[in-house]
Amino acid sequence: MVFVKASGLGWRGIFEALWTSRVWAACRLSFGLSIIAGLLNGVFGLLIAWVLTRYTFPGRRFLEASVDLPFAMPTAVAGIALTTLYAPNGWIGSLLKPYDIKVAFAPPGILIALVFIGLPFVVRTLQPVLEDFETAQEEASATLGATRWQTFRRVVFPQLVPALITGTTLAFARAVGEYGSVVFIAGNMPGKTEILPLLIITKLEQYDYEGATALAAMMLVVSFVLLLVINFLQRKTLVRNVA
Predict the structure, then answer these.
(1) Residue 10's pLDDT band (boundaries 50, 70, 90)?
(2) What pLDDT digit, counting tens, does each position of 64-77 carry?
(3) Using alpha carbons only, how large is the chain's radius of gyration in Å?
(4) Is the CB of residue 48 less than 8 Å from the CB of residue 67?
(5) Are the C-beta atoms of 107 and 34 separated by less than 8 Å?
(6) For 2-119+161-242, which CATH superfamily applies?
(7) DSSP conformation letters of 198-243
(8) 20 to 30 Å CA-CA from 141: which of 65, 107, 127, 183?
(9) 178 φ, ψ (degrees, to nearest 5)
(10) Is 56 helix (H, G, I), strand (E, B) or coil?
């Protein structure tokens, strides 16, 4: 439906709707921070999944439940909570203010929100793989003289890569279209902290349906291409591991 609407604009209309400094600033911010958030989620998600799977410690159940918090919490509530924490007068923001570090109403705040909502995708994708992993392979590696790091790098990690790519992809896809948790902490300043989903909403409120449709179609195309590339890399990794 979006592409049908966009096709009605013609190439010239789509070009005029997209080729503005405001749109490109929102594109750089949305896709750039989504990629960074996806990578951060990949790192921290792997660490958390590893800890939850391999270790027993006080507070483990609390950490396990906390991972699913972004799934259960309404995105608007998450955005308000993060803004309350990181605003200049918030609990964490007030500690950072003397050092002139601004988180809320700035790109770092958007990044924190995107990491928060995307982390569960990586953790929950990796956990089943780690739970089913045969420790006999690690033991065999150790008996052959490999260190823990060598065992992880050469035996464990290659088998986690497909799941890690899947989880990171899901986190990225969620981040690109995220609106509710970001809109409160972003500040929504055009050219600085305005994300693409918010720009689409703004155009709809201004009855600029053509511009909103062109933006939505562009987001779909770019996201689809990125997902195709990531899926190709994932399949290539799977083939390499099997070989």
Answers:
(1) low
(2) 989 999 988 888 89
(3) 21
(4) yes
(5) no
(6) MetI-like (1.10.3720.10)
(7) HHHHHHHHTT-HHHHHHHHHHHHHHHHHHHHHHHHHHHHHHHHHH-
(8) 127
(9) -70, 135
(10) coil
User: For residue 38, which of 153, 121, 106, 158 has the smallest C-alpha distance?
Assistant: 121
Site of tokens 């990171």: 168
Q: Per-residue confidence at 14, pLDDT binned at 50, 70, 90?
A: low
Phi/psi at 18 (nearest 5 deg)?
-95, -30
Between CA 64 and CA 195 the distance in angstroms is 31
Per DSSP, the three-state class of 92 is: coil
Mean pLDDT of 106-115: 94
- Which amino acid type is present at position 194? E
> What is residue 93's three-state secondary structure?
helix
Cα-flanking dihedrals φ and ψ of residue 102, to 5°? -105, 125
Q: What does the pLDDT look like over 156-178, one tens digit per residue?
A: 898 898 899 889 988 998 998 88
- Cα–Cα distance between 75 and 183 in angstroms, integer? 10
Q: How far apart are CA 168 and CA 90, in angstroms?
A: 30
| Helix ranges (DSSP H) in the chain | 2-7, 10-18, 21-54, 60-67, 69-72, 75-86, 93-96, 107-132, 135-143, 148-151, 157-177, 180-186, 196-205, 209-242
Query: pLDDT digit string (tens) for 74-90?
Result: 888 999 999 999 998 98
Distance CA 126, CA 20 (A): 40
